[in-house]
Amino acid sequence: MRYLMMTKPTEAAPDEKLFAEMSAWIEELTASGVLLATGGLEPGGFRVTSAGDEITVTDGPFAEAKEAVAGFALVEVRSKEEAIEIARRFRKLVGDGESVIQQVFGP
Amino acid sequence: MTDVHGAVDAVWKLESARIVAALPRLVRDVGLAEELAQDALVAALEQWPLSGVPANPGAWLMTTARRRAVDRIRRDRLLERKHEQIARDVREDAAEDGRDDVLRLMFVSCHPVLPAEARVALTLRLLGGLTAGEIARAFLVDETTIARRIAAAKRTLAEERVPFELPARAELAERLSSVLGVVYLVFNEGYAATAGDDLIRPDLCLEALRLGRMLAELAPDHAEVHGLVALMELQASRAAARTGPSGEPVQLQEQNRGRWDQLLIRRGFTAMLRAREAGGPPGPYVLQAAIAVCHAQARTAEDTDWARIAALYEALVRLLPTPVVRLNRAVATGMAHGPQAGLDQADSLLTDPALRDYHLLPGVRGDLLARLGRDEEARLEFRRAASLTRNAAERAFLHRRADALTGPAAPAATLGSAARDFLGRDGLDAATIRSYGQTLRRLCRALGDDLPLTSLTADVVARVFATAWGDAAARTWNRHRSAVSSFGTWASLEGLAAHLERRAATGPPAPAIEGAELVELLGRPGIAPRERALWSLLHESAAGVSTALSLNVEDLDPSGCRARANGSWITWHEQTARLLPPLVAGRTRGPLFLSDRRPGPARTPSEADLCPDTGRRRLSYERAEYLFKQATKTVDPTGTGYTLRRLRAREARH
């Protein structure tokens, strides 16, 4: 089963040590076949809303920055517990903050 | 506290390969390493619910397992003076990232000394962290079978002293192909479930994908590794589209390509590129992956480049001329060059004994026949395929394909109905029914219950006989022959057995080894006294191999020429009588044929299998067989070596 992990932004800027640890960890997770895709997201983005026939495009950034998603990882695991374990390790690496994990329908 | 057991299990599955792989350097025994790692798991299950999950659970398990290993060594007092050495090893080991260890573990658990199914079970156990119960459920066998298989595999590895090393360059290709074979076997069992109600068991596919992806990182220089990964990713990408709403199979050409998993397809393409970068001539996995790439690239079924696929199959058949590959080539040829060309290739497989119960052969023929407009034959083949598959969803699908073919209803007199009537007659005794039943069931399986009786000709019967009993002993052949002959007379099909020669009685199917051959074997330098005695005993006594191995010293008759086994006597001649005393060497009881080594500290064979004097265990059948095969490899025309059974003389000479 697949889970999408979405991480919310933190105020602390990542340092070089974190970068190094993170890339080692990503390499390990990829090697073990767990991590299918991952990436960081630019904070701004734009928003597309539809109402009736009308489509509105609004450029970011948006006010509720804390609720935005700063990065994502798509993992393939055997169980919810494994997803939790991986999320736990991730949070240990990056420090205080929050990730939201949802199962992806399908395989 | 959330479900700690769930957390422990998750950590274990993620970490167990690294943990188990790190230990053999300390304890030099993969089986023991796994047991120590299990001890650590048990400790976690005991402690974490009380103390909470540690900050770094993987490291906790690793440390605990290492500590147990060191304790074990100390307790065994094997290395009293080497404590410092151990401590140093432990520190050095901890510094390495353990990747090579995991690769070593993979090579060991897929070692050719193990039977294929043991390799699979052991690999899932050691590399996937699955319990025996989980493996058993995945393969739909009972748990004790798997547990026993794993235990036997560990024992064999210990007895054969398989080193915990990467294979030498000379044997690397062969060993790697064994590893790839195991991974692909796991994948296939998940992807094309051979038994049960579901067509796909995603857990096994995922397990195999993970093993494959792991291997690709550990051994990135081998094109075939990436080929296998590409093949699995691409096949898995179609998993969702392969079954319809009620679980029925959907054939490739009819699949909704929008449901193919683009993420996995892209991963497959990437793996394919890595295979190309690794270079070398394409091996079987790369070729199969290339075929899968062709399918993935076709936007619609009609866009499929069948000519290229057929060409790839031609190349694959040269490397891997298995019946199944040849059957797939027939499918591709049928698409690229028309159904008749495909049917010609498929028909050439009809006489292959390996395919006689393989449902896809009649399935493919049915498809080709239907495209040729030969509906009646096609329907028969679909029904036959349905009767051969063990998978419920596939069976229903094949029946539907048969039903969809219009045409005259099945004739009144079919092979199936006639066989039933023939066996249901009054006045047949049970033994005859059983014996005739075997023959007719085989005919029905090979030809289909719905075959019109009028189509049952001597030629057709002869073909079935050649496939089914071509290698059988004369007695078996003749028994089936007279059954067919009797059936033919009953059904007014004269001359049904006309093309079946009555066979003159000969020896058993695999002829016993000639005396002269054995003399040559026994006289060779380098054959151990134990092997000489065992081989000679088997030859002279015609006793069963298990019986011979079960002999104890106290069973021997003082005459030196016989021993009591299972309540009766087995006897032999001078040669064996001469060879046995050195084996006994003053012992008064315990197994006659002993293994070279004592069992590892972690295994406790039953007392009856241990020598009370030396502590060595009874020689195992596997080991004895292996040694004989090794010794006879050079004389066996097939190159695999003879089985011990072949030593039994044609007739017991007493």
From TrEMBL, chain A:
Coiled coil: none annotated. It comes from the Bacteria. Residues 1-89 form the YCII-related domain. InterPro entries: Dimeric_a/b-barrel (IPR011008), YCII (IPR005545). Transmembrane segments: none annotated. Belongs to the YciI family. PANTHER family: BLL7171 PROTEIN-RELATED (PTHR35174). This is YCII-related domain-containing protein. The lineage of its organism: Bacteria, Bacillati, Actinomycetota, Actinomycetes, Kitasatosporales.
From TrEMBL, chain B:
InterPro entries: CB, DNA_brk_join_enz, DUF6596, Integrase_SAM-like_N, RNA_pol_sigma70_r2, RNA_pol_sigma70_r4_t2, RNA_pol_sigma_r2, RNA_pol_sigma_r3/r4-like. It holds the Pfam family Phage_int_SAM_1. GO terms for biological process: DNA integration; DNA-templated transcription initiation. GO terms for molecular function: DNA binding; sigma factor activity. Residues 593-613 are annotated as: Disordered. Residues 413-492 form the Core-binding (CB) domain. It comes from the Bacteria. Keywords: DNA-binding, Sigma factor, Transcription, Transcription regulation. Belongs to the sigma-70 factor family. ECF subfamily. This is Site-specific integrase.
